[in-house]
Specification:
By secondary structure, the chain is α/β, with parallel strands linked by helices. It contains 13 helices and 19 strands. The strands form six sheets. It has a six-stranded mixed β-sheet with strand order 17-14-15-16-19-18. The chain has a three-stranded parallel β-sheet with strand order 1-2-3, sandwiched between helices. Strand 12, helix 12 and strand 13 form a beta-alpha-beta unit. The longest helix is centred in the last third of the chain and has 24 residues. The model has no long low-confidence stretch (mean pLDDT about 95). It binds 5'-deoxyadenosine (5AD) and iron/sulfur cluster.
Length: about 425
């Protein structure tokens, strides 16, 4: 989501005469777009700002901090880093050009922290500066689920779904700029809902189907989903809509029912497994991915072993796993029985050993087999190109085998944990 937001800010500013640079020292404006989801991510801001201050000491430079740390800690940023000119939460960055104009006229700007996703999307332009065949498209923002460990409902606000016509327009627009794969984005993407032309309430499966009618779109993905919103129609879409890729990122967080309850996930481990079974029955080739948290307050060895058991049962193709990180203002941060850091570390290591082994096994199962790869960009080496299989694996190949934007059927000759080679 932050990657998408940064792209949109860059698009917006390019329309106001700005040019992007990779060299910080050359910049007249530096925007630090921040993430607040875990402590490590938000800590980065102040070390980045320290470096930026040194540049600002030497030249005229405007500094903006945007995103969820700005939303959650706007006031502290003004105090700790008074040289920051502009602070904007994730729902206000469409006002950047107007604010930057005021700053250049010598005005002081107070932090922009309103929640107005509607206005934001109405004021952004899409696709103009798009490079490459894949793109994110934000279709939903915010979250009403209130998992007790998570800051998103506070930093991104309540759930908001963009309208069908707006999304279709954005996707069509992107295809005019060479995009053939879209990943529909939302903090809780499968809670997306909208109204069709006849006034009927629709869910994500309908939207995916509508997008699949856009001829130049060859591949559709969506992320991130919540198990509670994984309805029958969406599960069936994985059989009925050819352009929907056989990959599902469905976080479970924990395999222990008592921890799931304390997390306010509103589902049990069994409920999750039932969804996985259903989706595998509908489409046996689907690649599964998940998010996991170890060391949630009160997590015992037994709870942790329940997570290990669930992971062994599901067999993931990919995963994201984290140590629980106490986030200010969330209900879990004030719970007793916080798990010591050393224990979290040991548990994460053990969990990741199993998850990474599964990922490697999954990738190795494609040795000697054919995959369909959408070529996205040049690879790490000059003579290489890189793309993604239908199952989201990174695949590297000789540059003579295809051009960026093409979908090629290739035979896999090398496999590793993180990538495949032709
Ligand atoms: N601590 C650790 N991981 C977290 N996540 C969200 N909040 C926290 C937290 N406080 C993880 C969850 C979520 C992913 C985006 O980040 O696994 O699915
Ligand atoms: Fe956070 Fe996802 Fe839970 Fe929403 S559903 S509160 S975004 S972890």
């Amino acid at each position: 989501m932050n990657f998408y937001d940064s792209e949109k800010m860059s698009d917006l500013l390019m329309n106001h005469g700005y040019v992007a640079t990779d060299i910080q020292e050359d910049a007249d404006l530096i925007i630090v777009n921040t993430c607040h989801i875990r402590e490590k991510a938000s800590e980065k801001l102040f070390s980045d700002l320290g470096r930026i201050k040194k540049i600002k000491d030497k030249k005229r430079l405007t500094v903006a901090v945007t995103g969820c740390v700005a939303q959650a800690e706007g006031e502290q940023i003004s105090v700790r880093a008074p040289f920051v000119d502009l602070i904007s939460g994730p729902q206000s960055y469409h006002r950047l050009p107007e604010m930057l104009r005021k700053i250049s006229n010598g005005k002081n700007i107070s932090p922009l922290l309103e929640f107005m996703p509607n206005e934001k999307f109405d004021n952004l332009e899409f696709g103009k500066n798009k490079k490459g065949p894949t793109s994110f498209v934000s279709i939903q923002e915010g979250c009403d689920k209130f998992c007790t460990f998570c800051v998103v409902p506070y930093t991104r606000g309540a759930e908001f779904s963009r309208s069908i016509s707006e999304i279709i327009d954005e996707v069509s627009n992107l295809t005019d700029h060479g995009v053939c794969e879209v990943t529909l984005l939302g903090q809780n993407v499968n809670s997306w809902h909208g109204v069709d032309k006849k006034g009927k309430e629709r869910g994500l499966a309908y939207l995916i189907n509508e997008i699949s009618y856009i001829k130049k779109i060859k591949r559709i993905r969506y992320t991130t989903s919540h198990p509670l919103d994984m309805d029958e129609e969406l599960i069936l879409a994985h059989k009925n809509i050819n352009k929907l890729m056989p990959y599902l990122h469905l976080p479970v967080q924990s395999g222990s029912d008592s921890i799931l309850k304390a997390m306010n996930r509103k589902h049990t481990a069994k409920d999750y497994i039932k969804i996985i079974d259903k989706i595998r029955k509908i489409n046996p080739e689907i690649a599964l991915s998940g998010d996991f948290i170890v060391g949630f307050p009160g997590e015992t060895d037994k709870d942790f072993n329940d997570t290990i058991r669930l992971v062994k049962e599901v067999q993931y193709a990919q995963s994201y796993s984290f140590k629980y990180s106490e986030r200010p203002g969330t209900p879990a941060s004030v719970l007793d029985f916080q798990v010591p850091e050393s224990k979290k570390r040991v548990r994460l290591k053990k969990l990741q050993e199993i998850l990474f082994e599964q990922q490697e096994k999954y990738n190795f199962s494609f040795l000697g087999k054919e995959l369909e790869v959408l070529i996205e960009k040049t690879g790490g080496r000059d003579d290489q190109i890189m793309g993604r299989s239908q199952y989201m694996q990174s695949v590297y190949m000789d540059k003579n085998l295809g051009k960026i934007g093409e979908i090629k059927t290739v035979k896999i000759s090398h496999a590793g944990k993180n990538s495949l080679k032709v």
